[in-house]
Design brief:
single chain; Aspartate Aminotransferase, domain 2; alpha/beta; Aspartate Aminotransferase, domain 1
């Protein structure tokens, strides 16, 4: 099986699992315990926290709270920051942010949704226009999980703070972390990441916060773990896997990015342009290529490709029970285009040969399907 749905989840890294095994079967102690085994588990958490922050931010300026997933991190950030006035986000957000913003209305905060362009990137001018003196939070996804479009969050955050210095700026970085070069600037307050998108395990994520931003509230109450910001015994094994998988990712991220971008463009080059139209931008993530075989059904093509040994997506896995992607609808795709969407997403384990095989299979499946 050639697996090309890595934007949904990745295969856990064998190396990370092997290194983390110690914290599952030997050093399985509670990291809050004061004896030696607990201290060792606690040191692992400190090392992991320091490494993960240092890859994308200044550790003197940012701290990190471990969570169960990116969705929890997004929720904690949003419901801590958006407590008055209005909150601004984009129509291109992952469901973890979009649905949380819809919930804000029930909590007395007005949600505002900025439009996106045809490639899934935010219309930054329209978003800034929505920011006013009553805006408490602005959230802009870093890399679109639907199209791979990259938003310039540093520039957008700077413009937000120029208009309203009191507004908190956050970004969902789940599809960016470990895949593109990221450096959190002084205008970015909160940033969320997830382990299972980079070869770690499902069940582990993190919220990075600027240390000067002290209004963050705990989402779970209890024993006061994570400096009082996320109670519950830490998932030491999952965090260890996250840490070791991130070490692997960042050690070759630049080289992998170049190679995967080439594989992605090779796949596009080999697709039949009489059938497939490109949705993803040229300058987007090296890991995501979204196309449409207009007039066909993406779900049917997906099943046909699975039977041919190729696993691809049809958009966000979090929207798989809905007829069409909310984000791609916001991009302005017509009904026929929406019907035929396929999302191909790469990891460092994928090769140029995988891309070629996928393109040939996608052509074969679409031709066998028919359509016009």
């Amino acid at each position: 099986m050639i697996y090309l749905d890595n934007a949904a989840t990745t295969r856990p890294s064998d190396g990370a699992l092997a290194r983390a095994q110690h914290f599952l079967t030997e050093c399985y102690y509670n990291p809050s315990a004061l004896y030696g085994g607990g201290a060792e588990a606690g040191r692992l958490l400190t090392e992991a926290r320091s490494f993960l922050v240092s890859r994308i931010a200044d550790p003197a300026q940012f701290s990190l709270v471990f969570t169960s997933c990116g969705t929890e991190a997004d929720n904690q950030a949003i419901f801590s920051a958006a407590r008055r006035g209005n909150a601004v986000t984009t129509q291109g957000e992952h469901a973890a942010v979009y649905e949380s913003f819809k919930e804000l209305k029930n909590r007395g905060v007005e949600p505002r949704f900025a439009p996106v362009r045809a490639d899934g990137s935010v219309d930054a001018d329209a978003l800034i226009e929505m920011v006013d003196a009553e805006t408490s939070l602005v959230s802009v996804i870093h890399v679109s999980n639907e199209t791979g479009a990259i938003n310039d969050i540093a520039q957008i955050a700077r413009r937000v703070k120029q208009k309203n210095p009191r507004a908190v700026f956050m970004s969902d970085g789940v599809q960016a972390f470990g895949k593109i070069d990221v450096r959190l600037t002084k205008e970015i307050d909160l940033y969320t990441v997830s382990a299972h998108k980079i070869g770690g395990l499902k069940g582990t994520g993190a919220l990075l916060r600027r240390k000067s931003y002290t209004a963050i509230s705990p989402y779970l109450h209890g024993g006061g773990q994570e400096n009082g910001l996320r109670s519950g015994t830490e998932n030491v094994f999952g965090i260890a896997c996250f840490y070791y998988a991130a070490q692997e990712k960042f050690s070759s991220m630049a080289e992998d990015g170049v190679r995967l971008a080439q594989a992605k463009e090779r796949l596009w080059e080999l697709l039949d342009k009489k059938i497939y139209s490109r949705i993803s931008p040229q300058d987007g993530s090296p890991c995501i290529l979204t196309v449409s075989a207009a007039g066909r059904r993406g779900e049917t093509l997906q099943r046909m490709l699975w039977d041919m040994g190729i696993a691809v997506g049809t958009g966000s896995a979090c929207n798989s029970k809905k007829p069409h992607s909310r984000v791609l609808q916001a991009c302005g795709l017509d009904q026929r285009m929406l019907d035929g969407v396929l999302r191909v997403s790469f990891s460092p384990s994928n090769t140029a040969e995988d891309a070629k095989a996928a393109a040939l299979a996608m052509n074969e499946a679409a031709r066998a399907f028919g359509g016009n």
